[in-house]
Records
---
Amino acid sequence: MKRRKAIQSLCAALGYTLTPGTVTGLLLSCEAKKSEPFWEPMFFEQKDANLVAQLGEAFLPRTQTPGAKDVGAHIFVDVFMGKVSGSEDQELFRKGVKALRSKFEKITQKPIIDGGTMDYSKVLHTLYGVPKDKQPTITQLLDGGVPEGKEEKENFYTYSFLRIFKKILMMGYYASKEIGENVLSYLPVPGDYEGCIPVESVGRAWSIT
Amino acid sequence: MIHINTKFRGEVTYDAIVVGTGVSGGWAAKELCEGGLRTLVLERGRNVRHIQDYPTMNDDQWDMECKGNLTQEELKSKPKQSRSGAGRRKETAHFFVNDLENPYNEDKPFDWIRGYQVGGRSLIWGRKCFRLSDLDFEANKRDGHGVDWPIRYKDIAPWYSYVEKHAGIAGNRDGIPHLPDGEFMPPFELNCVEQHAKERIEATFPDRYLITTRTANITEPKDHRGKCMSRHRCDRGCPFGASFSSQSATLPYAEATGNMTFRPNSIVSQVLYDADLKRAIGVRVIDTETKDQIDYYARIIFLNASAMASAAILLNSRSDRFPDGMGNDSGELGHNVMDHAMGAGAGGTMEGFEDKYYKGRKPGGFYVPRFRNTNKNTVTDKFIRGYGYQGGAKRSGWQRGQNDFGFGGDFKDNLLEPGPWGIGMGGFVECLPYHENRMYLNYDMLDKWDQPTITFDAEFKENEKKMCEDAAVMAAEMLEAVGAKNVGSNCKITNIGLGIHEMGTARMGRDPKTSVLNAFNQIHAVPNVFLTDGACMTSSACQNPSLTYMALTARAASYAIKQFRNRIL
């Protein structure tokens, strides 16, 4: 928003009239130069900004509907962790990011700095794409508290991180303005309540529940 | 420093004073003003104007930075209010008290969830309105717990009708003897799964019913109030005035008479007593903004500060005649604390309705009236009294994917579609009046106004625990009968207080030796003080109690107005 204002005042100084389209154009042309739009996390370290964005997109990638990055869901994870989460979750998260960085390099054989959405997707497939009958083992690991052993610890923190990350990311995504107003069925003032209607008459799920 | 009121007494003398502006205080103000009494209405909290002061009424989740979650910073002032769901949501947090400024003490855990503002908890209540019946009014006499109610259903029935017609209750006439029908506006219909559940439960269990809930949301326009728009954002303040609150439904009527003097930011510390007249003569107020102490005088005083606060005011109103608090000849003042025990219930999923959905967010689901110990066919020897359930059925949203291992494009897009149906219900369990369940004043721990704080020493006991266990089992049994899958039941009894139905601290009764109030809610020994909030309840029944406070208030006010006109008071 600050940048938009800055551009507007710049244009005002040059005597241009801005339409919303030209503002977007200016913003995009600026952002296109980087692989990822720059954003300054409040909770995460700057070096993890890319990880948070790419992992978010790997969880909820763009299809015919927007992806996590499109609606800023990854930024919400950062705000939520910084402002809403308690110190225990924050600590778990910090250790989790570290563990995930290590997992990333083992799985992709790449330095984390080069990681793109596809690499994180690969990481998720390896870590989260476990068959249904193996899933309870992971849940048990997480519910059992911090285990002994270096590898067990790394697994514990990685999965703890992924579990919390996904929960918050989904809130950031599905409860975003774009998804809530334009993708899901949005009806802020319904009027009369109707208790039993064909699902086709609504389409996608209601955004306000 | 104590500021002394220097105003001429005539300037601060009224016909009546009402302390509190919540559900019952709003009603007292309306009735007394409409009855022609010049009435001073006092509220300890800030003013909240209808609509203008509902800052979140139209906010969607995405309009709030943390999507409705309170930040750690915001939670710092809500260590106790956050024990209740709505007390830890951004949409409603401003209608819950700051615990740091309004402390209380717990000998035993007690969740005291409060709203200190004009309108009180009428802005944030659940709005479920059920009449009590003689099954309830005769209960204490029948099984010997507590004391007998001094009234019966026939005494209050016309007043239920009176308040229902004005408040506007959406509901269906179901013809259930122990949950009497009222004066209803058209009900919110059951959705497909709820209707199915109703049919199955009523076919399987001869004494059980599932009805659409009865709720104080108008479904037809009335005076300045618009009908419910099915937003279900009632507890943020309803811009249509469809949801019952003091702001929408009682205070405007009081104001329209021209008889109301309205004073927010006014803590009542005590009721003033004149030993010669043997009457209360007024109240002492602390202005929360100036800290001035001001005495106001009136011939009639209505205490509607909430069950615990009204009792606290009386306990703090000490005199030679009443060394243990005004009206406390019986020693029952502050005792017999009751609430509804919650935490027992069941939930499951429903298949076969995937092609069905609903439109709108109705302000309540269904209600399963009490079916234990209601007649000779339903007697159980496991416990006395009974419980009812509130419940509902809905299709799950995107949250269903939060705890599994899913990810990726298909996962994301599938969650945009309506999910499986779920159905659940939770019990509201009657609590017996136990003398030892009490609140008392702590003069060692003063609040920022130098007023004593309240200490709670109360708990649910064996009978409530047994009922909770039964309520969990029966809820699961009914959901199985409905055909629900993955049925799970839960019985984790809540702390007393969390039902937010505090009652009983100044009970009505027939005998001044064992009760505080008489059949018209007057203090036995101080007949010009009326107390018509939850404190007056002689037993708790299992129904949501606010409608009964409304009816008792209107009834007591009508009586007070007659006594005033006849110069008896």
---
Amino acid sequence: MDINKYQTIVKKNTPKENRVGNLLISFFVGGILGALANFIIESYKYIFHISTKEASGHMLVTFIFITCLLTGLGVFDDLVKKGKMGLIIPITGFAHSMQSSILDYKKEGLVYGFGSNIFKLAGSVILYGVVSAYTFGLIRFLIFGG
Amino acid sequence: MTEKLSNVYVEETALVAGPLEKEGPLKEYFDKTYDDYNLKESLELSEVQMNKDVLDIILKKTNQEEKDIDLIVAGDLLNQLCATSYAIKDLNRPYLGVFSACATSMESVIIASKMIDKEKEQKRAICLTSSHNLTSEKQFRNPTEYGYTKPKTATFTSTGAAAIMLTNKKTNIKVTSYTIGTIEDLNQKDVNNMGAVMAPAAADTIFKHLTNLKITPDYYDLILTGDLGIYGKEILKDYMKQNYNITLNNYNDCGAMLYDMNRQKEITAGGSGPVCSCLVNYGYIYNMLKEKNIKKVLLVTTGALFSPTFLFQKQSILSIAHAVSLEAGK
């Protein structure tokens, strides 16, 4: 059978994904996470008498810790199924990808196991994160002079 | 290639299944079920353990000893078929490892049947198949604890191990014929829609089987595909109609039967994996044949020969299907 003709059969029998629904869920979950982050920053500033910059770092560490703990307890993947990309795009998703790789490869040992595999998913985020930071930094420097 | 077999029978089957399979509608047909995916210190060793358990069960059920087994034909999804070879290493029996992804079970039945068919003395062969949801996730997809949302067409790798003992001494259920499938490629590249990848292979094998034996689909009481899932099943029916002008009425898919699709939402489109078809065929279907509720059944297992490396190099996913027919004796 012709490939295009087959593709129409496949398309006919493929259910529609609820993209708008998923988008709204992600938007609200991501938004709530952002609001929570701001609340944590303000609280840290108030409690520890530190600057916003320092409090932001502390907030990120807090989120990373909570995510890793929940991943280790086997809860976070279920939360992602409910919260969708709202939990994957922020730092929580990054921490989750590293923690889940560690859990998977811990039996293969410290070096060949999680040493080699910890960045299995997060590697591309780091690489292209650094590349884009460098590129946009350069553009900013050339146009606005730093 | 289609051929009739003259002297191959099913002596016994044995099944072990994982936690989600246990919650499905076919629970009563499993000999042993597990509440956890971790049975041993690692996931891979857990799959090995399931294979060991199912071998113990089938030997116990048939009152046979290890030395009575003349041949083991087996396979699984893990690289180098390790889940199988580590499980049978202490048995010290002749072994052939086979791989056709989710079509492994029927490939092993075909090879074993052919080996014992013309033998004069009584011979026994065991065909063993297993898959484990988490070892497959780890090997083919993302880390097991990594959460991501799956599209509705994605299938869920079943957990369990299955064994079938074939013999050339008469029993109530006969292995009557088989068809070896060819590799099909209709340029499918969506790993989350394996039903669409495998449906052409299943259709082709069914068509060749029917034409070579000069029979119609109605000859069988039931035609079962392996793991196309609820959407792949509809694709197969449409494709059969349009490409071969054959309407399948007495047809179902094991992947859609193994779980309660209304209650078990995490399964999305249905079960998959080599053991998925076995958990239905060797349990529910085998019992229906034994009790003569159905007389003739065609089992078509479908395999997506999927490699992440080839897919990332922009190659399409190939598929294959093998068919075996079973008949209940008079």
